[in-house]
Specification:
Number of helices of chain B: 14
Shape of chain A: globular
Largest sheet of chain B: 4 strands, antiparallel
Shape of chain B: globular
Distance between the termini of chain B: 59 Å
Strand content of chain A: under 5%
Radius of gyration of chain B: 22 Å
Strand content of chain B: 5-15%
Helix content of chain B: 25-40%
Number of strands of chain A: 0
CATH topology of the largest domain in chain B: D-Maltodextrin-Binding Protein, domain 2
CATH topology of chain A: MetI-like fold
Number of domains of chain B: 2
Number of strands of chain B: 9
Oligomer: heterodimer
Largest interface: A-B, 36 and 39 residues
CATH superfamily of the largest domain in chain B: Periplasmic binding protein-like II
Distance between the termini of chain A: 40 Å
Order of helices and strands of chain A: HHHHHHHHHHHHH
Structural class of chain B: alpha/beta
CATH class of chain A: Mainly Alpha
Number of domains of chain A: 1
Radius of gyration of chain A: 22 Å
CATH architecture of the largest domain in chain B: 3-Layer(aba) Sandwich
Structural class of chain A: mainly alpha
Number of helices of chain A: 13
């Protein structure tokens, strides 16, 4: 790092698209319509407490399901031949090449009463509506959308675990389960942590998915409604601010586990 | 090398910020902001109002759309939207007049205003006929799929007294409610026998409680494919759009409950910020002409307040009981509500949407 000049474009970028918008969120969160400083907007947190709870519930459940699905997949992938690994990588990333709103709209069409899912179910004699407009549909939508963000970090870390460490474990008499518990899992923990962060954060603030598939609002939809439809930048700013705060705290807690991973080892 | 690269990147980033602002064109032009699918324009229309206007006057039109009255309002308030012609609904016209956001029209430039039927002039939202020109009107009603309803419910819909079919338990997850607070609360208030413009907190809370009693499919644009596809048994929507989807599925029926509904009037207005009021008035005048009005009405399917355009419609359309129903005493138009009421509705709407599980 001899010269700081190459940094300039990135600093300009960050200022324009990170610092200034964040500053605006703070400004609106703590001012009223006349531009006076106020804490009055905290009232909106109480009004929307149920939406926050729902959002974190859905995000927690989705993250858990992603983890349960992704961990074995990442493990299996990391043991495949390099060629097969490349193939799997592409297969996992492929859906992300299409815009997520389009994918959610497709899920919407599939889940509808006359959609493919219900047509198949009625062929099996299980007619009616399976999951359309239910929280289950929302969780499925989020898991579907964010699963790659869980698989890829875990896989990346696992692929780097040296074979010799696993062989050492086997030499010392570990059976398959002990090997997983004492060698592979602790070593893959950084991947798990970043996977959880990468799924939980966007899931907690997700919008469109819940409104479209579930017919109810999560916090992202509520913030959107305040900003766009309902003309209250101050309420929207406060809701965004508190959402960010909760997320920053959860990331800090996660990172704490990450640093002390030798404690988890015990 | 690095320096050149970083310079290049910086220039590229700055350019992406500045470029969209600097696009300019020669000749006079205006910006028209309408709702989606609410004017006969583009490739699927027989008569493109924008093109015809440009041809006739040489004024270039930049046509954009907004999502809702609230979006339009916030765009104008924040200064993000600089428009010359807008199409707000009745209650929003009233609000914009109250907040001094609209320009007084010079009716000398709008001679075709004479085409407007007298009963649409000087309505409550603009009693002195100063700021707005009627564009379309319509009602909200129940649209239902005949093949999905039980015999009992079908009989009930024959003589539809109120909105109670929306709270039926016979069609789980197949009953659609409009996904915006004003329309949803309006229907619930009517069902309870209250005014949709009530400022009484208890009545509004009762409406929210009523909405909570049903698990609705809240939708707006999805209506256009779900209703004709048979995904829904019962829905609520604007009469003009119901006419559109009924052409696609012959099992669909439309009815306005006797206990009352929302009679809406959308208008053409010019924001105070417009610097091209005379050109904008020329555009409004063009839309009010008989020929443009007729083409527009046939395309949009909403009800026209334009007598000259109405005369040119075919007889079937003129006598359509859905598009041109007989006005009832129980019908009401939205009025602008006080801030406290708007805030209450917004808070309750949030909980209604959150509880819809």
């Amino acid at each position: 790092m001899k010269s700081k000049k190459p940094l300039i474009p990135y600093l300009v970028w960050m200022a324009a698209f990170v610092v200034i918008p964040l500053g605006m969120v703070f400004y609106f969160a703590f001012t009223d319509g006349n531009g006076h400083l106020t804490l009055e907007n905290f009232r909106y947190i109480g009004v929307n407490s149920q939406v926050y709870l729902d959002s974190f519930k859905v995000a927690f459940l989705s993250t858990l399901i992603c983890l349960v699905l992704a961990y074995p997949l990442a493990l299996i992938m990391s043991r495949m031949s390099p060629r097969a690994q490349r193939m799997m990588n592409i297969l996992i990333m492929l859906p992300m090449w299409m815009n997520f709103i389009l994918r959610i709209c497709s899920l919407d069409l599939i889940f509808r009463p006359t959609g493919i899912l219900n047509q198949l179910l009625s062929l099996l004699g299980l007619g009616g509506n399976a999951i359309y407009q239910t929280p289950t549909a929302v969780v499925i939508g989020i898991v579907y959308n964010y699963l790659p963000f869980m698989v890829l970090p875990i896989y990346t870390v696992m692929a780097k675990i040296s074979r010799s460490l696993i062989e050492a474990g086997q030499d010392l008499g570990c059976n398959g389960f002990q090997l997983l518990k004492k060698v592979i899992f602790p070593l893959s923990l950084p991947g798990v942590i970043s996977g959880i962060t990468m799924v939980f954060v966007p899931a907690a603030s997700s919008f469109v998915i819940s409104a479209r598939l579930g017919g109810f609002n999560l916090i992202g939809d509520t913030i959107e409604a305040y900003y766009k439809g309902e003309i209250d930048m101050h309420a929207g700013g406060m809701l965004s601010f508190v959402l960010m705060l909760v997320i920053v705290i959860s990331i800090a807690v996660m990172n704490h586990f990450d640093k002390d991973d030798d404690i988890v080892l015990v | 090398m690095k320096k050149i690269l970083s310079l290049f990147l910086a220039v590229a980033m700055m350019a992406s910020l500045v470029l969209p602002l600097s696009s300019c064109s020669s000749g006079p032009s205006i910006v028209v902001c309408n709702w989606g699918e609410y004017m006969s324009t583009g490739s699927d229309a027989d008569y493109d109002i924008i093109k015809e206007f440009e041809k006739a006057t040489g004024i270039e039109v930049k046509y954009v759309t907004a999502e809702s009255n609230e979006t339009l309002y916030s765009q104008m308030k924040s200064g993000a939207g600089k428009y010359d012609v807008i199409f707000p609904s009745d209650y929003m016209v009233e609000r914009m007049i109250a907040e001094d956001m609209l320009a007084k029209l010079n009716f000398d430039n709008i001679p075709n205003y004479k085409n407007i039927m007298d009963r649409f002039k000087g309505l409550d939202y603009d009693p002195n006929e100063e700021y707005s020109v009627p564009y379309f009107w319509g009602t909200v009603g129940i649209i239902y799929n005949e093949s999905k309803l039980t015999a009992e419910d079908l009989a009930m819909m024959e003589d539809c007294k109120d909105w109670s079919i929306l709270w039926s338990k016979n069609y789980p997850d197949q009953i659609m409610m409009m996904d915006n607070p004003r329309d949803a609360f309006g229907i619930a208030l009517k069902q309870l026998g209250y005014s949709q413009n009530t400022v009484n907190e208890e009545e509004i809370r009762a409406a929210a409680a009523l909405l909570d009693q049903q698990k609705f499919v809240y939708a707006m644009d999805q209506f256009f494919d779900m209703m004709p596809a048979g995904d829904l048994a019962v829905g609520t929507y604007y009469a003009g759009d119901c006419l559109t989807v009924m052409e696609e599925n012959e099992d669909l029926r439309f009815v306005i409950p006797a206990c009352g509904t929302n009679l809406f009037n959308d208008a053409m207005c010019i924001p105070k910020t417009s610097e091209k009021q005379a050109l904008a008035e020329q555009f409004i005048n063009f839309v009010l002409s008989a020929e443009a009005g007729k083409a527009n009405t046939e395309y949009v399917c909403y009800s026209t307040p334009n007598a000259a355009a109405f005369e040119l419609l075919d007889e079937e359309m003129q006598n359509d009981p859905i598009a041109y129903p007989e006005k009832k005493e129980t019908w009401e138009s939205f009025r602008n509500l006080p801030t406290a009421t708007n805030d209450l509705v917004r808070e309750l709407w949030n909980t209604v949407k959150t509880n819809n599980k």
